[in-house]
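Hi both,

Apologies for the delay on this - the queue was longer than expected. I finally got the copper (II) ion-bound model through. Below you'll find the protein sequence and the ligand SMILES exactly as submitted, and right after that the structure tokens for the full complex including the ligand.
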Amino acid sequence: MKKSSILSIAFIALIGCLVVALIYGTKLLKENESFNGELINREAPVFSLTDHNGFTFDFGKHKGEKIFLMNFGYTSCPDVCPTTLATLRNVLVNLGEKSSEVEVLFITVDPERDDVEKLGKYIPYFHEGITGLTGTSDEIESVTGAYRIFYFKEEEKSDTEYLMSHSPSVYLIDKEGNLLLKYPQNKIDPELIAKDIRKLI
Amino acid sequence: MNLYSLSVFIFMSFFIISCNTDSGEDKNSIVITEARVREVPGGSDITAGYMKIENKTPFDDKLLNVKCGLSQNVQIHETYIDEEDIAGMRMIKSIDIPSGEIFELKPSGYHLMIMGIEKGFNEKEKIKCELDFSKYGKVMVEANITGF
Ligand SMILES: [Cu+2]
């Protein structure tokens, strides 16, 4: 065999190897970028509410400091809401030391009943890394509007006894302040969420 | 006793135990298993209860009413989550349980909505509930109080 043909075979083999490496490499990169949550990726709207200790919580000041997990609900909801809060607590537990880079926000859609005092007792029951937020009806309307969260009061039995309907999803805001991911009810799982967070820390 | 007779003895005792739980009072009755009630988070006076209800009677029956200890009111609720990403609860008047079937109350599905929880609830290990069926009548269960 001629020297030149050996060279050209080696050259073709080298090109082949490079192509395979390139395809495999981009695939790996893509896998790394894919998340368990559904991608939203728009700037997270800012808001100001009152936390469960009675202090003002200005999200504009905290945005970008940490990863935020956000959920909307109400305390007179014994099935879905505490299950989600327990799941978010399990995300923090799962992350161990890294949980200091994550803050969970629970925003009430029922500010009439969920005042600072009620949230102050309810939220710490789940985890100290969770912040409960309430406000006036107008404030809650504006934050839910900005995040496109639906909620409404069902038929009222009395002033204090009524059921609410609301979006149960969990939202993730990354360290760049982007509303990056949404976890619908069937994806609210501590392992799935923690895995995404580890990619983002 | 040699190993062989020991294993025969163990096998027989398992057999007897498993026979026992399946015979006698379970037949022709409504059997409740895995009854549990969630601990009440601070600041709240509402919680949820779950269980499996098996209708072993020859009749189709209906769960009409529930009462539980240390609470003022128990309703039967269904949690629904629709495609528009809305979750809510609706009150159900009764649950049909056909003969031979098992109905499960579980998180994000049907639950007992236990309201007006009184003091001392979380300190208990179990809470007594009384289920009232249309044909079978009343069944008492002890539900374990569980964390989250
Ligand atoms: Cu309910």
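Main takeaway for now: Helices of chain A lie at 3-33, 59-62, 80-95, 116-122, 137-146, 190-200.

I'll put the files on the shared drive as well.

H.
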